Amino acid sequence: MIPVYLVPALPLAAFILISLTSLRKRQGLAPALLIAALAGSLGLSIALLVGVQSGRIASGSQFGFTWMAVRAIDPPLILRFSFLVDGLSALMMVVVSAVALLVQVYSLGYMRGDEGFGRYFAFMALFSFAMLGLVTSGNLLQTYLCWELVGLCSYLLIGFWYKKPEAASAAKKAFIVTRFGDVGLLLAVLALSYSAGTLSFTGLERAISAGTLTPFFFGGSAFLTVIALLIFSGAAGKSAQFPLHVWLPDAMEGPTPVSALIHAATMVAAGVFLVARTYFIFQAAPMALGVVALIGVFTAFLAATIALTQNDVKRILAYSTISQLGYMMLALGAGGMAAGMFHLTTHAFFKALLFLCAGSVIHAVHSNDIREMGGLARRMPITALTCAIGALALAGIPPLSGFYSKDEVLAAVQNSGYISALVGTGGQAVVLALALGVVFLTGFYMSRLWFVVFTREWHGHGESCTAHESPFSMTGPLVLLAALAAGAGLFGHPVGTLLGDASPESGATWLPAVSALIGASGIWLAWLVYWVRAYVPGKVKSPFALALYRGSQNNWYIDAFYTRVVARLVLGTAAVVAWVDRHVVNGMVDGVGWLAGRAGAWLRRTETGQLQWYAYVMVGGAVVLALLLSTLVVSR
Amino acid sequence: MSAIPLSWYLGLAAALFAVGLFGVITRRNAVAVLMGVELMLNAANLNLVAFWRYLRPGVMEAPVFVLVVVTIAAAEAAVGLAIVLSVFRNFHGVEVERLDLMKQ
Amino acid sequence: MSANLQYALFAVVAASVLVPALLVVTSRNLVRAGFWLLPVFLGVAAAFVLLGADFLAAVQVLIYAGAITVLLIFVLMLTRGAGNPQVRQSNRMIPWALLLSGAVGVLTAFVLGREFWPVTTETPVPGFTRALGEGLLTTWLFSFELASVLLLAAMVGAIVIARREEP
To answer: Strand pairing partners for A107?
Structure first.
């Protein structure tokens, strides 16, 4: 019996130890503690995965204890801590701890010399604890707890260089935007708790399939649809789906390893994981799944169009991440839960790889702007090669992993009953076309990035390029991740069986070949433009094209809209409320004081200072008292 | 056996007390107020002796009490008038209305 | 002593007490008011005699008529109280004071005057003064001493308060 609670507990212990010992002095101890903890978690996770895969470990809850029980109401409210071991959680445990471990090793080199070295690893440890706690959680309450904690760590790490104003506001933006989604999630948790009486995943699944859920608004299936959509709103916040995607590009203000771990591989995948975890709710509300798919594909296409024109290497990757997350949501919404999770796994590997490569380049060149780079392949061969592998995997070129996972997603879309139920077979075709369009765009923008950064001449500051390859602590993880990105395609079938979906999606036979060709054509176009210089972008004069270009570069003015409209609305309301507070509420409080003063002034008139007045009042009072008592006595 | 009922003496004392009270409340000069106080004290003494005579003439408690009351009245008059003198030195006048330093 | 004589004596005593008392509290001339105190005190002393407390009558005359009246008039002189007879000596509260005193007087008279006191037919023992003296120095010695201490304190206090400050 492998104690699953140790998997999140080890990073938690690392966090506590780091916080106590190495925040200022002995900062070198921090990464050692965390890497050791994560290595332990990884080992346990792999053992658990193997055990579940082979059937030796039964899926189900482990190690539960009651946190709080309110028995005064009926039915009693019982809140528990519990850990759930099954294929899904085992898979996520391995992915999270593996990527986290490699990123921490990379951080040794990347963050060297930073004054917040110890603090960085403390936050990373806390994040690892929260993320692993999230994926092993056995009930929605614990998930919500870890969900919020993960958001907190994201805030702390995005704003790691807090003295930089852009970083501070990016951290705030991330937290506030995800908060909008989190409200929906909280409402869903509360509603489920009230109507099902339990929050454990096994309990909820039982309640829904047995029909013992008591909806308290709308009807039976409409209730579940609303719940599912509320859960999805939380997922949309964390996984940067439209319209809550705006925080992710700005989150690139944080250190690059943070972007790699949190905003590519793990935290943003939490939304996808949540939908997968509560999939039984979505399956009982088919319309919700259709909505998820549509939002997913729209987000994917939108983000891909923006990534085309960005000049900041991390922003290209950020929009790419948003796009791929949309892909995952598309898969889930189409009914292919295994396909979506498989894509999550492969994406975690190659996206983390790409970010770490970007970090390597940024570290060497001291700039994020690709227009200031060029010709780096000669000087940073390992980085260039691993980056190429990652880019090809992302574009879906066989035999790399991305090809297999993307293929499964497309097959799921083609076979989906949920999408056609919502928008008809015509709509389904449009969705498929958009998904394939995303493949083309992905190939193009990734190749553009690679060609501009690693080929041609140096366009940066100074006479010639002074960059050099990164140290082994950074290139080692790159190589490992590249190997995973390349070979993870083999895991498709095992992942499927793990998640209870034995037969992988198989769509039309032409689908894999067509998608690979589309990806390749995107790469070919980029090669033409950026290597061969067949078409030079600067020569395009058409005003329509220029307008499109500018629109794309400004993320289609979504951020501008939020700033102008939404923020104005909120601040306006706040001004009104502030006025009420100042005048009405304060007025009441001041009014009480004023009243006390006036009452006192009126009563003060008895304190005349005149002796005879006092004597009069005393005797008069005695007379009155005597009269009262005498009437009492007489009446008796 | 006295022909005069107890209540007559009590009525006399009550009337004297009322007159003294009137003086205390009404007079403007501090010494005049003290005169009213003396009248009230005398009324009380009168009451005491009357009760003693008609209820328990055999025991001496009441007369002793009266003696103590007279003693205290004398002491109080002395101290009170000393205060009046002191007030006169500070205020150059002893109108009671002017002594309102305790006013809020 | 015949009843009629007693009534007559009581009437004289009552008049001698009440009428000057009224004059005490209403005279514009404060020195006159002070002097009207004398018949009041003497009248009360007479009442004490009628009631059989002869030593108390003597004390009343000595202390009240003798010491206190003199003291009052002395201080009146010292504080320029013997001023203009045109000046009003009673304040604005006359009607209210009448109401209150009337109420107090009537209330007290009626409450106390009802015929429920357990009046005895005993007569006071002869030797009032002797009994009083013995009691003061034996049974009620503590009160006696306490009263003495009080007098001492009052004496000292009065001297301190009325002392002229060193210039």
So the answer is: none
> Which residues from chain B sit within 8 angstroms of residue A619, using beta carbons?
21
Round the average pLDDT of chain A to a whole number and report it.
Answer: 85
Residue B25 with chain A: CB contacts under 8 Å: 612, 615-616
Alpha carbons A197 and A210: distance in angstroms, whole number = 14
Residue that wins the pLDDT comparison between B56 and A24: B56
For residue A619, give Cα distances in angstroms to A539, A607, A629, B18: 109, 16, 15, 11
User: Is C91 touching A (CB cutoff 8 A)?
Assistant: yes
Q: Identify the chains in contact with A, defined as 3+ C-beta pairs within 8 A.
A: B, C
Q: How many domains does chain B have?
A: 1
- Contact yes or no for C55 and B94 at CB 8 A: no
Please answer yes or no on whether A611 and B103 come within 8 Å at the CB atom: no
Within 8 A of A624 by CB-CB distance, chain C residues are none
More confident position, A273 or A631:
A273
Q: pLDDT band for C81, please (50, 70, 90 cuts).
A: low
pLDDT score of A538: 66
Does the CB of A608 have a partner CB in chain B at under 8 Å?
yes
Residue C29 tokens read as 């001339």
Give the gap in angstroms from C-alpha C94 to the nearest C-alpha of chain A. Answer: 12
CA distance A21 to A17: 6
Chain A touched by C100 (CB under 8 Å): yes
> Are residues C103 and A630, on separate chains, in Cβ contact within 8 Å?
no
CATH number of C1-85: 1.20.120.1200
Alpha helices in A67-164 (DSSP H): 87-110, 117-136, 140-158
Q: Looking at the complex, report in whole angstroms how far the Cα of residue A608 sits from the nearest Cα belonging to chain B.
A: 5
Place of tokens 């890497």: A35
The pLDDT tens digits of the residues spanning B35-46 come to: 999 999 999 999
| Residue B81, domain extent | 6-103
Domain boundaries, chain C: 1-85, 124-167
The whole-model pTM stands at 0.69
Query: Which of A607, A610, A617, A623 to probe the B interface (max B CBs under 10 A)?
Result: A610
CA distance A359 to A362: 5
Q: Which residue of A has its CA nearest to B101?
A: A609
What CATH number is attached to the domain comprising B91? 1.10.287.3510
Choose the closest CB to C154 out of B3, B54, B79: B79
Whether B1 is covered by a domain: the verdict is no
Give the pLDDT score at B12: 95
Is the pLDDT score of A108 beyond 90? no
Segment A487-545, tens digit of pLDDT: 877 776 677 767 766 555 566 677 888 888 888 888 888 888 887 776 666 666 677 77
Judged by average pLDDT, the poorest of A58-62, A128-132, A557-561, C8-12 is A58-62
Note whether A608 contacts B33, CB cutoff 8 Å: no
CA distance to A376, B62, B67, B75, C143, per residue, from C148 (Å):
117, 18, 12, 10, 9
The whole-angstrom distance between A594's CA and the closest CA on chain B is: 19
Contact A448, A530 (CB under 8 A): yes
Residue B27 has φ and ψ, to the nearest 5°, of -75, 145
- Among C93, C107, C111, the residue with its CB nearest the CB of A616 is C93
C97: nearest CA partner in chain B:
B22
Across the interface, of C14, C91, C139, the residue whose CB is closest to B12 is C14
Q: How many CB pairs under 8 A join A and B?
A: 28
Residue-wise DSSP of chain C: --HHHHHHHHHHHHHHHHHHHHHHHH-SSHHHHHHHHHHHHHHHHHHHHHTT-HHHHHHHIIIIIIIIHHHHHHHHHHTT-S--TTS--B-TTHHHHHHHHHHHHHHHHHHHHSTTS------PPS-HHHHHHHHHHTTTHHHHHHHHHHHHHHHHHHHHHHPPPP-
